[in-house]
Amino acid sequence: MEKTINISVYGSEKKCASCFNLPSAKETFEWLEAAINRKYPNNSFQYRYVDLYTTQTETEKKMAEFILEEELFYPVVCINDEIVAEGSPKLTDIYRKIEENQKNYLF
Q1: What is the CA radius of gyration of the chain?
Q2: Nearest partner of 9 among 104, 98, 102, 84, judged by Cα
Q3: Which of 13, 55, 78, 79 could form a disulfide with 8 if both were Cys (CB 3.0 to 4.6 A apart)?
Q4: What angle do CA 38, 18, 31 make, to 5 degrees?
Q5: Which domain of life is it from (predicted)?
Q6: What is the CATH number of the domain that holds 37?
Q7: Which helix (DSSP H) or strand (DSSP E) does residue 84 occupy?
């Protein structure tokens, strides 16, 4: 049975000081969505972009507070609410975590 993998990208319109040469969090979100859908065209993913300063759910609020308190570089990429990458995400790390989640759903 295939389950949906939730992919969240936390960021802000304002770039963090160390990330000024990188794409915006929103651009990273769009790039990740396209890359993941190309690599895994038959899988079920739920994507969401979360602005750190306008969170909607309690989970989003807690994650945003953690990101800001710990001074993580954003965007921060989470798969099923687990931080996988921050700053400039690497597709290999994200693909590895997706594949781990896929294996967990098989059993």
Answers
A1: 14
A2: 84
A3: 78
A4: 10
A5: Bacteria
A6: 3.40.30.30
A7: strand 82-86
Give the range of the structural domain holding residue 66, as residue numbers without chain letter. Answer: 5-106
Number of domains in the chain: 1
CA dihedral over 28, 30, 33, 34, signed as positive or negative: negative
pLDDT digits (tens, 9 = 90+) for 46-88: 999 999 999 889 999 999 999 989 888 889 999 999 999 998 8
pTM to 2 decimals?
Answer: 0.88
Tokens 């995400």: give the residue: 89
Of 61, 53, 58, 60, the residue nearest 16 (C-alpha): 53
| Sign of the alpha-carbon torsion through 67, 25, 49, 89 | negative
Contact 49, 27 (CB under 8 A): no
What are the residues facing 48 on neighbouring strands? 8
3-class SS at 27? helix
Element (H, E) at 68: helix 58-69
